[in-house]
Amino acid sequence: MQKWHLILFCIAFSNFLYSHANINYGNNKVAGKYYSLRGIKMYTEEYGSGKPLLLIHGNGGSISSMASIIPFFSRQYKVIVTDSRAHGKSIDTNDSLSFEMMADDEAALLDEMHIKDAYVIGWSDGGIIALALAMRHPGKVIKLASTGANLWPDSTAIIPSLWKDEKLHYDSFHSKIFNPHK
């Protein structure tokens, strides 16, 4: 009898893994949707059911940056994952960008989705956005996990010698034109 339970469990687990392995997180037409808010079109995807969990990616990232954790959390939560302003598939034609703006975008998204509050996980700059969301809209955050973030994202968060090296690197390349076909 136990042998059949183990076999059934293995079949069910492999079906679960297979179904999530074929999901193109960040480009899933079934789960994806745009919301017009605060002068932008924010791209989102939703997975699972339960209490809402908002995942916020880091700088230069997108929904696909969170692909490895979406299946795990979607087993227990309604996972809401977004492409932040000026990232991924979100459309932003404005000329400004700040952590505060992106935190306000996340709060506006929850309002637009008629979600009173959510658990929030942010990674890197997404962690900064999550912290700003909690500070600016505390009623929107049930609990928060922020990793790889700093509260003052400026040169004080970096070892001064590293900051100088990075500045030299930037100065030497910022005006060069690169040909990706070479």
Layout of SSEs?
Blueprint: H1 2-21, E1 32-37, E2 40-47, E3 51-56, H2 70-74, E4 77-82, H3 99-112, E5 118-123, H4 125-136, E6 141-147, H5 160-173
Parallel strand pairs: 3-4, 3-5, 5-6
Antiparallel strand pairs: 1-2, 2-4
Helix pairs in contact: 3-4
Describe the structure.
This protein is α/β, with parallel strands linked by helices and 182 residues long. Helix content is 36%, strand content 21%. It has five helices and six strands; from the N terminus they run H-E-E-E-H-E-H-E-H-E-H. It has helices at 2-21, 70-74, 99-112, 125-136, 160-173, and strands spanning 32-37, 40-47, 51-56, 77-82, 118-123, 141-147. A six-stranded mixed beta sheet has the order 1-2-4-3-5-6. It is globular. The mean pLDDT is 84.
